[in-house]
Amino acid sequence: MTAHGHHRPRRTDHRRSLGIGAALARCFAKSGHQLVLVARRADKLEALADELGAAHGVKVWVQPADLARPGAAKSLAAALRRKKISVDVLVNNAGVLEQGAFVSMKAERHQQMIALNVAGLRAMLAELVPAMQRRGFGRVLNVASIAAFQPVPSLATYAATKA
Q1: How many percent of the chain have pLDDT more than 70?
Q2: Active-site residue numbers?
Q3: How far apart are CA 67 and CA 72, in angstroms?
Q4: Any residues with CB less than 8 A from the CB of 22 and at least 6 apart, and which?
Q5: Given pLDDT bands bounded at 50, 70 and 90, which one contains residue 163?
Q6: Which fold has domain 10-162?
């Protein structure tokens, strides 16, 4: 908090969102689903893949990707096609949040949130849903936030991206 009562921008600890993704992956693995884990950092993905494979006897592929980058979803989908992996359930869990007064944040930070939370999600849908539709089967789980349903002054851009 500054002297004038305005919050300075603060990046949220991503362990919580990583925790949501890991928890969902554990649920799917426990139910016998093969998985493709996607995130920017391969080392954490590899550790989770090893854990899930050992605990549940499922095949787990690791595919590092920065879904905020233009073209990343297209490259990911192409890599999956090359490996002959079809996606039956897409879990769109990638997201970033920064808390603080709107005017205190740099424009680049707002754009980064939009790039991942909106454009990245849309790109994943555009790349993977058409194949689901052609096969006549597929599901999508878009992980959102309660911030999508109420005004949150210190989370203006984040709340807008989740809505």
Answers
A1: 89
A2: 158
A3: 5
A4: 48
A5: confident
A6: Rossmann fold (3.40.50)
Q: Is the pLDDT of residue 15 over 50?
A: no
Return the pLDDT at 41: 86
Beta carbons of 29 and 23 less than 8 angstroms apart: no
What tokens does 14 get? 């991503």
Q: Where are the alpha helices (DSSP H) in 12-148?
A: 15-30, 42-56, 72-82, 107-114, 121-135
Tokens of 87: 């996606």
* Phi and psi torsions of 109, nearest 5°: -65, -40
Instruction: Tell me the average pLDDT of the chain.
Output: 88
What is the widest separation between alpha-carbon atoms in the chain?
58
Domain boundaries, the chain: 10-162
Selection from 142, 153, 152, 149 nearest residue 163 by Cα: 149
pLDDT at 104 over 80: yes
Q: Tell me: the pLDDT tens digits for 76-93?
A: 999 999 999 999 999 999
**Sequence-ordered list of residues with C-beta below 8 angstroms from that of 124, at least 6 positions apart, any chain:** 67, 73, 76, 90, 92
Cα separation, 114 vs 31, whole angstroms:
33
Distant-in-sequence, close-in-space partners of 68: CB < 8 Å, separation ≥ 6: 96, 112, 115, 116, 119, 120
